[in-house]
Design brief:
Layout: H1 2-16, H2 97-106, E1 111-114, E2 121-124, E3 127-130, H3 139-147, H4 152-161, E4 163-170, E5 174-183, E6 186-194, H5 208-214, E7 219-224, H6 231-245, E8 249-254, E9 267-272, H7 280-287, E10 294-297, H8 303-314, E11 318-323, H9 328-338, H10 341-354, E12 355-365, E13 372-380, H11 383-391, H12 397-402, H13 412-421, H14 427-433, H15 437-443
Parallel strand pairs: 7-11, 7-12, 8-9, 8-10, 10-11
Antiparallel strand pairs: 1-2, 1-6, 2-3, 4-5, 5-6, 12-13
Helix pairs in contact: 7-8, 8-10, 10-11, 13-14, 13-15
Amino acid sequence: MSIEIETLVQKLASLAAVPSTSPVSAPVPVAAQASDTGGYGAPQAVPEGYGAPQQVPAGYGAPQPASPDTPSPSAPAASAPRVETPSNPDKSDAPHIDDLLRVMIDRGGSDLHIAVGSPPGIRQRGELLPLDGGKILTPRDTQAMILSLLSEEQRKRFETELELDFAYSIPGLSRFRANVFQQRNSMGAVFRVIPIKIPTIEDLALPKVCRFLAERPRGLVLVTGPTGSGKSTTLAAMIDHINSTRALHIITMEDPIEFMHKNKMSYVNQREVGEDTHSFASALKRVLRQDPDVILVGEMRDLETISAAITAAETGHLVLATLHTTGGPATVDRIIDVFPPHQQQQVRMQLSGSLEGVMSQVLLRSTDGKSRVMAMEIMLGVPAISNLIREGKTHQMATIIQGGASMGMQTLDQHLKALCQGGRITFEEAMGKAQEPRELAQMLGRKI
């Protein structure tokens, strides 16, 4: 009997040592389970936006086959709740830039403005007007609209500099000069229309002296004025005149390329800063090795570029360039002041011998408000002007210009007077652009 009891106790002890397989056993953490595949035992990094790691219920410790809906091996199995992927941050219901550019062209606008907090705006006849019924743009809208136009390289350049200039075209419609910028931590942009057809000197009703300057064999010709005054268009007309009448080699350096010139009588090579060359200065360093006759510099921005342009003009080339100055005397001062004092007298000597002319222009609203009218000051590099440059007496140049009508020179106020008397602009518009408003009013017999 005692033997039977002892045997029964041993059996009960052996049963107690067997692990329980009951379905109510406690959950086992995934990290504590062994894995033959490796990588599943340690906690996994969760992709951003997918929420916190999910606890694995008991019985799911073994690796499960990957589901098409799971973003990574560490995601829970298909029977567990699935976390949704966040919406596309670039998704926007804003209109496409191309559609807005077409509207601008249809309405005869010159510039399209894209900015956060306002609907798209179109500049028409000098006034910036919001698009009727246009959507007020959000930061997401402007980012999606603008980035859709940029290449990977352009995106990287914008991220570095927070500014970007580039040319954009819609086949069969027009080309556009675009500037992208950052403002209040969001993206904005302005697109300016560039006509596909290059206007002629006659189309623009430019003074005859523009043709004379385009036909010079050498020297420095400057077209100046504020942003949006039509400098690029004037230069394009002059380049087209040379291309149509002379067998030369023309090299342009632009940022960006606006008007596309086709070879006519001349060979025309166009280089875009940022795409074909690193800078105006670096392009000018090597341009003389490219056998040019005519060199166009989109903008003389710094000492190195200005110095190289003057040197090219001195060495027998016709150099056309722009500056953001108003008037011939101010342009000369701007060039000289870029250089350190110990170099300025030498630069005066160089400039006095190479400057052929300065055309400074502004755009005004026509009397009927339906178009823009250009007014231009013209200063030529005649001996009297050259002497004043050498002597540093730019303040006396206005008198020479005013009395030089027979040679093709005119002050801005003289041209404003003629436009006002001809009924092309109003007195108020002329006074708003006058260099000497009181004198202009006196010339027009008006009191202010």
